[in-house]
């Protein structure tokens, strides 16, 4: 496969997944801050569980490609770092939510 085919197969989707997870998490946090109730907290926790599973599957795929595609390691390393950038953001959001309880 060429580099362009890899970008289309995994890179674009993994970046979209990372950005989408960030946007949905931010929207849920803002909604929780504006309308604090247990229902939104439940939705947020459910979202975090689902996001962890989906992002973990993408991370495993990217790690597999990183290890098997030696000529594209830089590309997959960057995609992994983009995906992992949501972890510290999630901890900051968790701290904000716990401070409002």
- Beta-strand share of residues: under 5%
**Category by helix and strand content:** mainly alpha
Q: What distance lies between the first and last C-alpha atoms, to the nearest angstrom?
A: 51 Å
- The total of beta strands comes to 0
Helical proportion, percent range: over 70%
Low-pLDDT runs: none
Q: How much is the average pLDDT?
A: 89
The count of helical stretches stands at 4
Taking all Cα atoms into account, the compactness measure Rg is 16 Å
Q: What is the chain-wise order of helices and strands? A: HHHH
Q: Mind explaining what this structure looks like?
A:
- The structure is a single chain.
- Helices cover 89% and strands 0% of the residues.
- The protein contains four helices and no strands.
- It is elongated, with a radius of gyration of 16 Å.
- The termini are far apart.
- The model has no long low-confidence stretch (mean pLDDT 89).
List the helices and strands and how they pair.
Blueprint: H1 3-34, H2 38-68, H3 73-84, H4 86-100
Question: Which tags fit this structure?
Answer:
mainly alpha, single chain, 101 residues, 89% helix
How is this structure best summarized?
The chain has 101 residues and is mainly α. The protein has helices at 3-34, 38-68, 73-84, 86-100.
